[in-house]
Amino acid sequence: MMTTSNTLRPQLGDFVNVMDYKALLDGIEDNLGSKAAAVIIGAAGRTYGKKIATKLGASMESNDLPTILKRLNTSLGVEGTRLCLIDEVSQQENFIRVKVTEPVEMSGENSGSIRLCPFTLGILGGFIDQVMQKRHQARQVPVGDQINFQTEFEFTAL
């Protein structure tokens, strides 16, 4: 499990307001452009996702991928950093689909938002790459009206 106590910042605690993250995201996008920002933020997420997989000791030898990804909720969900909730994972022959609710990037967005979630996408992609020991192409799947701040990601092995 990720650190969730006040160990990193004794007085303020280990969490920051979501709107602070959104301000960082908006600032990066404004200065680099949305596409370049998505590449950089996604790459940072991918690195973090690999670290989480290593820390959890997740590997394909121990379980099937949907079960392993559900365990990731310990680190990313209510009991962890609260980045998002992993709702559903399905593994098809050609791709892996992960449905999440309340990714941090969508915080404060209006219903129907088409907001991309590069950090969440990167974390999930890095985690999957590390577990499966192969690189995957990741993409956010457009979901009609982003209902209940839910979005989907697909990962295809390269």
Give an overview in words.
It is a single chain. This protein is α+β, with helices and mostly antiparallel strands. The chain contains five helices and four strands. The chain has a four-stranded antiparallel beta sheet with strand order 1-2-4-3, with helices on one face. Helix 1 crosses helix 2 and helix 2 packs across helix 5. The longest helix has 23 residues. The model has no long low-confidence stretch (mean pLDDT 85).
Question: How would you summarize the topology of this molecule?
Answer:
Blueprint: H1 18-32, H2 34-56, H3 65-71, H4 73-76, E1 85-91, E2 96-101, H5 118-132, E3 136-141, E4 150-157
Antiparallel strand pairs: 1-2, 2-4, 3-4
Helix pairs in contact: 1-2, 2-5
- Average pLDDT level: 85
Strand order of the largest sheet: 1-2-4-3
What's the gyration radius in Å?
15 Å
Please give the count of helices.
Answer: 5
Record field, number of beta strands: 4
Largest beta-sheet characterization: 4 strands, antiparallel
Helix-strand string: HHHHEEHEE
Which structural class best describes the helix and strand composition? alpha+beta
* Proportion in helices: 40-55%
Shape: globular
- List the uncertain runs: none
The termini sit apart by: 30 Å
Query: What oligomeric state do these chains adopt?
Result: single chain
Strand fraction equals 15-25%
